[in-house]
């Protein structure tokens, strides 16, 4: 199956009909362009009383099966990574040997990717081309422009993919945050200009399409987090997504204001801050102390940021809850703040973790019971989706990055904004944008691969 010069296709192998393991293909004039290459984690299994999740032997890291494009890698012009979240970049070290194509991405995402590739001894084998926001690159028959948007990680980019048969706007993960705190912002003019040029299809994030209103800004979280830390009498541990550098900056500022010392617990947090430093996105005034020093400080001077907001095994917060973290032990009167919301499927693991913390006498504050906001989503709610459709004015809407409920709600929003056609499908469907719009259902076999004992195995 090879696209001809008159064809303009979209083919998702992962991330459409689900949240996670994004892997998208665009086909035109004999070539394919891949956008994102991410991982996911096993479906929820039995949760033991201590919070341990038993996944019935499934590999702990899973990703979309790239067999279709791996068999055609001579026609794969390149891979673009839109941003540095695991569900968009995490599969690259596992799958690149099957693809062996150049990778295009922004500087911060490149820093994250380089650290992943180094762990697999691939760093000097993989060609990584760093691209600036606003820049255009010719990748095979695709002319691609990187466009600034905001998300819960620095420097995410949407893509304008231009071809002789029409243009496609690929949003990546995004929100409209007027005060993102770290990294670039966005300009409405960027997108209204695209509308004047003409956009055949808009392939867009559906994660929060069922959420009314507008997502809140990162800048609004300082009050809630600051008050929670200021009221705490013992140690404070905040758990959040390690990729949210803006959230870490906010917490570092709060540490200074409340007379506490901030340290990071968890390898992914350390890797992210190192990548931010290398990309010039870490403020020099935000000093961190070695986590091994936290145990020697008076309790009221400790502010630790820990991995494990989703109740994942072997993370720092899980070890603290179990009383076996090497740096310090939680005691009655300490406080744990969940500056994150549960990813669907993780609720039982998080609830078990919270029970363990409370059994220690620890005060637990979640985003649901905080007086003021302590977490901001990185995805667009309904008002933002509507506004983007008003700006872009595509002829076709293709919702992705969501389960069926999210994508159907997204399609309804697109239609309400005057988009002539919305096409809703799932992984393995071929979305034909040109010459005649339509969907061919399940033309490509899809599935999952897992990484187990240093090899890829078929999961389903």
Automatic annotation (TrEMBL):
One Pfam family matching this protein: Lactamase_B
Keyword Zinc on entry: yes
Keyword Nuclease listed: yes
GO molecular-function term, one example from the UniProt record: metal ion binding
Keyword entries, A-Z: Exonuclease, Hydrolase, Metal-binding, Nuclease, RNA-binding, Zinc
The protein's name: Ribonuclease J
Lineage, broadest ranks: Bacteria, Pseudomonadati, Pseudomonadota, Gammaproteobacteria, Pseudomonadales
Organism: Marinobacter gudaonensis
Entry's transmembrane regions: none
Metallo-beta-lactamase domain: residues covered: 20-214
